[in-house]
Amino acid sequence: MAITTVDEPALLDYQALGDHTADITFLDSRGTTASLTYRQLAEQARRVAGALLARGLRRGDRVLLPLGTSPDHLAALWGCLLTGLVPCTIVVPPNPGDDTATGTRQFRAVVTVTQPAAVITADSATAAALATDDGPQFLTVADLQHPPATDELLTPPRPDDPHHIQLTSGSTRAPKAAVLTHAQVNANVRAIHRALDFTPERDRACHWLPLHHDMGFILTLSTLTRGVPLDLMPSISFLRDPLSWLRHISQRGATITTAPPFGYRTATERFRRTPDPDLDLSTLRQAYVGAEPIPLKVLTDFRDTFARQNLREDVIIPCYGMAETVLAATMSLDRRPPGDLSWGRVKALRLDREALHHHNKVGDATGDRPSLTVIACGRPLGGLTVHVRTADGTPCGDNEIGEIHLQGDSVMAGYLAAGGAPTMVTDRTHATGDLGFTRDGDLYIVGRVKELLIVNGRNLPPYDVEEAIETHPDIDAGNSAVFSCTDDSGEHVIAVIETRLRADEHPRIEREAATLVRQSFGFNLHEVIVLRRGGIPRTTSGKRQRGRLREDYLTGRLA
């Protein structure tokens, strides 16, 4: 597949932030909560840099940022980048004083893997709850007020210096932490600049994705390094009022936004229940969608619902990417000929479901046979090449399903192992664990080799969800299994539970298991299936066979 070659003479210049004249506005579901200019952010970042250096931190040290979307977060992040420190933005633990809470356990697991020199929290209470005697030093945003660092202390980065660490899963055991270098981030961000055709005079970016999410982080970084006006809102504000996202775009004239499919679906559903006739999306020129399987219906519903609000159909751009490639790997930037499965920049194929799921073959659906619709994720960019390979490494041709491998300039340096030691990538190639195929230059995603769950743009290992289910007093350890499957409406998570309880107790177990998952992870299970003991297939060594469970579920044999 053709690639875009990146040959940039210089890395991104983080000291040039104050040269831009744009503004950054922070929003909630109602309106503005804070704002500052690029120059003000640059001044705050210099003070942060001075404070971090005064605390003894040095180039290459890792810094965790469990901070919400705020000016303090951006200043802390930029201060790290100015000094050559390596930031890692993570979820703020909701109950930091509870060591048994999922968020706190995830935080402890991140500390074990990343071995940070410092952690920056919003307040002293959070710092006191999370700190340990033998751990990193804890700082609050109040500790970062300091005389600004001078130019001689801010030496430019080298291409192979670590830029940041991006968590690719929220595991409570061993989260995956990708190390991205300055050269790799430069390659992907420059490619995003070109794809978005970003110009400070014309554009304004607006999004609600958290900064611990690679899509939220890199779109924010791409916007700031181009000097484009930026509107940020916390994800909780979007969840409270999904239409507030689109109202801000309408009222502030935003031109660029992004979200996973569930964001577009949620906004559509809310608008259909409570229409806002004053909404005007005429300024929006690019709305990226990715981070999880993309259902065609979500895109067509969004297009049709907001057409009367002046949304152009070529605004929606499906894409594919991941933290391991910084962010963007492929984008569907081409205009498509109009048709039942093609419009704007969206193209889809309707495939024979049985051939795909049971024979691993790509065949167009015919007649009334069960079908599955898959979206074209476009072509690679940013010096990346897409290779589709069989399990033994044999290259696949068009319409042949295999694992997707990405090779090129923005592929990560490697993952951190427990204790902070990196495991380096060889041949600048990342085996994604995603299954897909190519046709006419476009990449299509059809499933995963891995058992990882992708829920609302988050990567979750199934064993974390199983562990939460098994805290139920009537469910023994090892007696649940969780897997996901995809249909035309999106990706769904199914839980299977073994129990010795009578059949009349099964509905209670289903309800209470679903509640445990919702409380721990914030999403709803699509279905909970309760079986008698021995119903979950296992290997000879006793491991749960989630792939076989998925197959039994899809074929109706799970009972």
Can you tell me about this structure?
This protein is of the alpha/beta class. The chain has a domain of 94 residues: GMP Synthetase, Chain A, domain 3 (2-Layer Sandwich), CATH 3.30.300.30. 28% of the residues lie in helices and 26% in strands. The chain is built from 14 helices and 29 strands. The chain has a five-stranded mixed sheet with strand order 11-12-13-14-18. Strands 2-1-10-9 form a four-stranded mixed sheet, with helices on both faces. The protein has a four-stranded parallel sheet with strand order 4-3-5-6. Strand 13 and strand 14 form a beta hairpin. Helix 1 crosses helix 2, helix 5 packs across helix 6 and helix 9 packs across helix 10. The longest helix is centred in the first third of the chain and has 17 residues. The N terminus is likely disordered.
User: How many DSSP-defined strands?
Assistant: 29
| CATH C-level label of the domain at 461-554 | Alpha Beta
Measured distance between first and last alpha carbons = 44 Å
CATH superfamily of the domain at 461-554: ANL, C-terminal domain
Instruction: Give the strand order, joined by hyphens, for the main sheet.
Output: 11-12-13-14-18
| Backbone CA Rg | 23 Å
Tally of individual helices: 14
What can be said about this structure in brief?
The protein is an alpha/beta fold and 559 residues long.
Secondary structure layout:
Elements: E1 23-27, E2 32-37, H1 38-54, E3 62-65, H2 71-83, E4 86-89, H3 102-114, E5 118-121, H4 124-130, E6 137-140, E7 162-167, E8 177-181, H5 182-196, E9 205-207, H6 214-226, E10 230-232, H7 235-240, H8 243-252, E11 256-259, H9 261-273, E12 286-289, H10 296-306, E13 316-321, E14 328-331, E15 342-343, E16 346-352, H11 353-359, E17 371-375, E18 379-380, E19 384-389, E20 402-408, E21 414-416, E22 422-424, E23 429-439, E24 442-448, E25 453-455, E26 458-460, H12 462-469, E27 480-487, E28 490-499, H13 506-521, E29 527-532, H14 546-554
Parallel strand pairs: 1-10, 3-4, 3-5, 5-6, 9-10, 11-12, 12-13, 28-29
Antiparallel strand pairs: 1-2, 7-8, 8-21, 13-14, 14-18, 15-16, 16-17, 19-20, 20-23, 21-22, 23-24, 25-26, 27-28
Helix pairs in contact: 1-2, 5-6, 9-10
